[in-house]
Structure formats: structure tokens, C-alpha cells
Amino acid sequence: MKKIEAIIRPFKLEDVKLALVNSGIIGMTVSEVRGFGRQKGQVERYRGSEFTVEFLQKLKVEVVVNDDNLESVIKAIGDAAKTGEIGDGKIFVSPVESVVRIRTGERDNSAL
Question: Whole-prediction pTM value?
């Protein structure tokens, strides 16, 4: 099993959610996060003054998938989140040793 963490633009959440559902993913976690990468923030204007927003708002979408679904889910997220502009985000993949469904005690693939 693998955990996929995708950092995406907030307005792309609905597109990513639909892509994941169409890929057979029935559960996900979404968190509001802030950060910067190559963008290094952006200049904003407020009441005639310029200031730099160093940490941009993003969303982190987390899903755990079976190894055989990994590439299709990565492609679905990438296609749905892409705008072609700098700041589209990143996808991180990590191994997951075990999953336990708290309610039933089911483990690993049956708990997904």
C-alpha cells in the first residue's frame, strides 16, 4: 500500500475529487496548508500598498491506495490539478505498512 499526498491549488479540489472518485477512490483527507516553492510567494496590493505573501494557500489531499492502483491515481490527480502554470503543486508517495479500520478491526486492503 502507498500513501499519496498531493499539494494542489484550492480551486482544483473539486476536479481532483471527481478524478479520484472516477478512479475508484472512496475516501480522502483534505487539509488546508500554506507554503511556497519556486513561486517564492507573490506580490499583492492592499489599499495602495504592496506586500509580499510568502506562504500561499494550498490544499493537501491524502489517500491510501493498493500498489496496483498507484499509477492510475497519480495520473488522475496530476491531470485534474494541472493548470500548466508555476505553483500547480506536487505529489508525494510514501509506503504504508498497515491500515486498521477502527470500527471493525479490519486490516490492510480490507480496511481501505
Answer: 0.84
